[in-house]
Fold:
Amino acid sequence: MNRHPAVYGLGRTYAAHAAEMGAAPEPVVFVMPWTALVPGGGEIPWPAGSELVHHEVELVLHLGEGGRNLDRAAAEAAIAEVTVGVDLTARDVQARAREKGHPWARAKGFPGACPLGPPVPAGPFRGRWGEIDLRLEIDGTVRQRGRVAEMRPDPPGIVALLSRWFELLPGDVVFTGTPAGVGPVRPGERLVASSRALGVRLECSLLPPAP
Ligand code: ZN
Structure:
């Protein structure tokens, strides 16, 4: 069997978002199938079994190296590229899963759940991750605005933490969690995720549910 990269998602890495979800600011990790990724965004099918999809704008890391038990320096060096992404979440499916203590896989990993922008080299941001800004607009109105400075752990800390629990591989993609301001997305609304520091912009929209 070949080994394949994975898509990791972090939750509750921004205290203000954890609070708006009624949760403690303690990082949680979930894993998504590769088919959740949509490089470049575009039109995304509505997730089956959901009536409530939320947007979560996030910094996304692309790993150039893998490994286990990476120290902070190795974890930082492993981050090859970065971009913005949207962790689309079937919030009603997630709420039902949370109630029952079930995994979040269906809420987070549906096909197209993770549109992401064009990756840019991470080198210039090493040692100054906090300066990266995140922004999400829907039909021209700003809904989320955040800075990586508010994120705990920071990107190298997240990769180091993941490498204690998983064997990381080159090509792994990490969604690092969302700042406050998440909310519903309706079919046809135009989402624009961007970061001025990264010089990256991503557009996507959800198609209406299948009849
Ligand atoms: Zn998220």
Q: What stands out?
A: Residues 7-206 form a domain with the Fumarylacetoacetate hydrolase; domain 2 fold (CATH 3.90.850.10).
